[in-house]
C-alpha cells in the first residue's frame, strides 16, 4: 500500500513511527525487516 507522506503510524504496542518521505510503502505481509515500512521481503519468498 502506497501512502503520501509525511506519515505517522501507531503500532500495536502503542509506539509511533514516522517517515518524512514524500511517499512510503506500508508492509501488509509482516515479512519486512523495516516493519511497518515495506522492504519487498514478500518478493523473496521461495516457491515450491
TrEMBL record:
Keyword Translocase on entry: no
Superkingdom of origin organism: Bacteria
Keywords of the record: 2Fe-2S, Iron, Iron-sulfur, Metal-binding
Residue span(s) of domain Iron-binding zinc finger CDGSH type: 4-48
Pfam families according to UniProt: zf-CDGSH
This protein's record includes keyword Cell membrane: no
InterPro entries given in the database record: FeS-contain_CDGSH-typ (IPR018967), MitoNEET_CISD (IPR042216)
Listed name of the protein: CDGSH iron-sulfur domain-containing protein
UniProt source species: Streptomyces xantholiticus
Amino acid at each position: 500500500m502506497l501512502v503520501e507522506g509525511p506519515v505517522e503510524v501507531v503500532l500495536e504496542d502503542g509506539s509511533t513511527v514516522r517517515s518524512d518521505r514524500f511517499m512510503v510503502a506500508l508492509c501488509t505481509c509482516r515479512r519486512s525487516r523495516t516493519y511497518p515500512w515495506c522492504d519487498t521481503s514478500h518478493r523473496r519468498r521461495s516457491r515450491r
